[in-house]
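---------- Forwarded message ----------

FYI, see the Sulfatase N-terminal domain-containing protein record below. Original note from H. follows.
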Amino acid sequence: MCLFGACQSSSPSSRAGSTPLQKPSQTYATQHVILVVIDGVRYSDSWGDSTFSNIPNMARYLAPQGVFNPQFYNQGVTLTNPGHVALTTGYHQKIKNNGDELPRFPSVFHYYRQHTGAPATDAWVVTSKDKLEVLARTYSSDSAAAFAPSVNSGIKGLGTGYRDDTTTIRVAKQVLSRHQPKLMLINLREPDSEAHAGNWNGYLKAIRQSDRLVADLWKWLQKQPQYQNNTTLLITNDHGRHTGKNFESHGDNCEGCRHISLLALGPDLKRGKTVTQPRSQADVAATIAELLGFPIPKRDGEPMTELFQEHVHLGE
Ligand SMILES: [Zn+2]
Ligand SMILES: [Zn+2]
């Protein structure tokens, strides 16, 4: 019953209550998921360059062990916070880009903890950009909002500035060793920062550093008994950059800003394959929930089952 029009505005909680759930269809070998977001890398400067000169490790070492989608896009606002929020919530929110606004909906981290009862140390947001601390929060009044993940962002959290990507990877490895989380997001920001500074060579160098850092992370994971053969690694971007010579900036709907990439490795995923079904960031949260076996409200995305090995589908 609606009195005085009070029910007319649909709050996140009332929406969440009526949103259908996406439930996992089966169980998987994946026990941990790590999502690495390399900030602001244009497709044409990475996978779209046929020599792979800036991503030799991803193209020649990681891709043969995983599955690549060259048709992966930012279908929302092509800025850092909106891109990351689409990845973590499966919803294209026009969220502010400066850290002043929280996500409208709980994230895949919140739903993971709510469903499993896992402690906050089982889900982590580790980011070079301090403004991404908002990924661990939400203004939703959904019951899942109480299950925030742990967060380690920027120099010392929101408002304290950006830090180096090598520091972020070091922190991420410390957390992985100490807490053995099931779910982690890592943001690497240096390609975006170098490009905004107008430093073309610095931008390419930062892409090459990111390429090295993610390959080293995968090698390191495969040497840890607790992560070996049971960890899925997803490597993507928040947005690209303007097409053509104007590489410094981004934020509109041009091909360069929207076209990003997805490389995925893990025990349940295809190896040495390319899949070409057009996908977007909104499909990532649903895919993580499917692999880790918990329900999540259906928003703008769905599980990317085309990434999965064929035998995984036999039980369906
Ligand atoms: Zn940027
Ligand atoms: Zn653009």
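H. also flagged this: The two ends are 41 Å apart (CA to CA).
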